[in-house]
């Protein structure tokens, strides 16, 4: 469950060394090895009428990536980290999965999807597609501010949204392994509007009290594990409320267990975790729920 | 008898270059494309010299280098580091790992920063194994 090996997938657009640098605090958890992956999309070097396969372009793109990776690797080597790199002409998600199989990372770091809305509707975002096809936790990196400055301390003040599912329980174990890097964690449970339909104030307060007690117990559990934790009960639409809480508490990222919904249902209806991963302003750490982590 | 030289590098162009240089100079070339495959090959073939890249997928050259230098049966095999990573960074990484993991690993016999011409490579090989 520890993060020993991290797969850092970059297109050198949104996700660059500043993002990687913000993750290096994981060294204090258990990080030993960083693997870089740059996927050169096939259409950049594809066969074209009159010019054929753009071999020179492939060499140029690979060498450009190689030079960037050497520069990044030198910084990481100097910290005593193990570093590996892949530069491949391929298709984005299948190539990530291929490298995941070869390297068995404990965490995949990717930028948010650049697919258009229509393409996302039919094919899903890169994040959605990756989540469907791997059981490795995924950190979806976001630049939280308009000026594209990367949050320096991404693990400092995470917000964990729990729905008390089995996946949420696994996520808690994952969080415990990050005790040396998390500053203070905010834990939120969102009570859906429908649960509060009763006109009896007493009943409404009772629901809040029950949820708050569960959150308090969870905070105690985390504090026992060495992580400072604060509980919050919110009411309303989970996706909106989680985003709202992240803003209110100036979270450095959102941590979520991923949904167990069937893929087809998820594609059309969406899941809270995937919608947040795709749309939130905050970096999102998504923990899969299918198997033991 | 010709001596066996193992080149461990993930870049096929580099492997081809080194293999050509080795063959032209009557060495027996062996190849591996990452640190894990490299170690298996070293254990199996016991080469007279290893030419080792640093930045590779699956085990890096840094890990393999330390593994070889701490292995009683393999630590006498000379190693030429052949890489795009600057020597300064390599030395810092060794220092950090010495502190982190304990122990002190000797520095590589020869450190060549890519790109290197065939003459320089052959001179380095000859210096180590004749």
Secondary-structure map:
The complex is a heterodimer of chains A (293) and B (130).
Chain A: E1 5-9, H1 17-23, E2 33-41, H2 55-78, E3 82-90, H3 92-103, E4 107-111, H4 117-123, H5 126-133, E5 138-141, E6 158-161, H6 166-176, E7 184-191, H7 201-224, E8 228-235, H8 238-248, E9 253-257, H9 263-269, H10 272-279, E10 284-287
Parallel strand pairs in A: 1-2, 1-4, 2-3, 4-5, 6-7, 6-9, 7-8, 9-10
Antiparallel strand pairs in A: 5-10
Chain B: E1 4-8, H1 12-24, E2 28-32, H2 35-45, E3 49-52, H3 61-69, E4 79-83, H4 87-101, E5 110-113, H5 118-129
Parallel strand pairs in B: 1-2, 1-3, 3-4, 4-5
Q: Care to describe what's here?
A:
Chain A has helices at 17-23, 55-78, 92-103, 117-123, 126-133, 166-176, 201-224, 238-248, 263-269, 272-279; strands spanning 5-9, 33-41, 82-90, 107-111, 138-141, 158-161, 184-191, 228-235, 253-257, 284-287. By secondary structure, chain A is of the alpha/beta class. Chain A is elongated. Chain B has 130 residues and is of the alpha/beta class. Chain B has one domain: Rossmann fold (3-Layer(aba) Sandwich), CATH 3.40.50.2300. Helices cover 46% and strands 18% of the residues of chain B. Chain B is built from five helices and five strands. Chain B has helices spanning 12-24, 35-45, 61-69, 87-101, 118-129; strands spanning 4-8, 28-32, 49-52, 79-83, 110-113. In chain B, α2 packs parallel to α3. The longest helix of chain B has 15 residues, at 87-101. The radius of gyration of chain B is 14 Å and the shape is globular. The interface between A and B is medium-sized, with 19 and 21 residues.
């Amino acid at each position: 469950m520890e993060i020993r090996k991290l797969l850092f997938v970059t297109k050198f657009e949104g996700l660059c060394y500043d993002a990687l640098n913000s993750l290096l605090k994981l060294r204090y958890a258990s990080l030993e090895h960083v693997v870089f992956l740059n996927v050169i999309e096939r259409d950049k070097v594809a066969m074209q009428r009159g010019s054929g396969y753009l071999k020179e372009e492939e060499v140029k793109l690979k060498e450009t990536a190689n030079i960037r990776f050497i520069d990044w690797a030198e910084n990481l080597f100097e910290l005593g980290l193990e570093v590996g790199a892949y530069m491949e002409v391929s298709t984005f998600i299948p190539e990530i999965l291929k490298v995941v199989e070869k390297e068995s990372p404990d965490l995949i770091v990717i930028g948010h999807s650049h697919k258009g809305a229509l393409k996302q509707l039919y094919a899903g975002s890169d994040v959605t597609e990756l989540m469907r096809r791997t059981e490795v936790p995924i950190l979806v990196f976001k630049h939280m501010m308009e000026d594209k400055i990367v949050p320096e301390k991404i693990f400092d003040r995470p917000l964990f949204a729990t729905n008390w599912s089995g996946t949420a329980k696994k996520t808690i174990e994952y969080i415990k392994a990050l005790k040396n890097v998390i500053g203070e964690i905010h834990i939120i449970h969102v009570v859906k509007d429908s649960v509060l339909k009763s006109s009896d104030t007493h009943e409404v307060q009772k629901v809040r009290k029950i949820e708050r007690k569960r959150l308090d117990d969870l905070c105690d559990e985390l504090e026992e594990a060495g992580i400072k934790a604060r509980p919050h009960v919110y009411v309303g639409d989970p996706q909106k409320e989680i985003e709202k809480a992240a803003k209110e508490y100036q979270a450095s990222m959102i941590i979520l267990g991923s949904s167990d919904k069937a893929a087809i249902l998820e594609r059309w209806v969406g899941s809270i975790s995937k919608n947040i991963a795709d749309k939130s302003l905050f970096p999102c750490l998504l923990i899969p729920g299918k198997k033991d982590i | 008898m010709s001596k066996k030289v193992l080149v461990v590098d993930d870049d096929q162009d580099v492997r081809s270059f080194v293999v050509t240089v080795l063959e032209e100079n009557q060495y027996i070339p062996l190849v591996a494309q990452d640190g894990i495959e490299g170690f298996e090959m070293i254990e199996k073939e016991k080469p007279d010299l290893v030419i080792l890249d640093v930045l590779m997928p699956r085990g890096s050259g840094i890990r393999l280098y330390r593994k070889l230098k701490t292995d009683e049966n393999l630590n006498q095999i000379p190693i030429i580091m052949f890489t795009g990573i600057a020597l300064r960074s390599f030395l810092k990484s060794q220092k950090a790992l010495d502190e982190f993991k304990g122990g002190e690993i000797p520095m590589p016999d020869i450190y060549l920063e890519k790109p290197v011409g065939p003459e320089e490579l052959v001179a380095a090989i000859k210096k180590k194994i004749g």
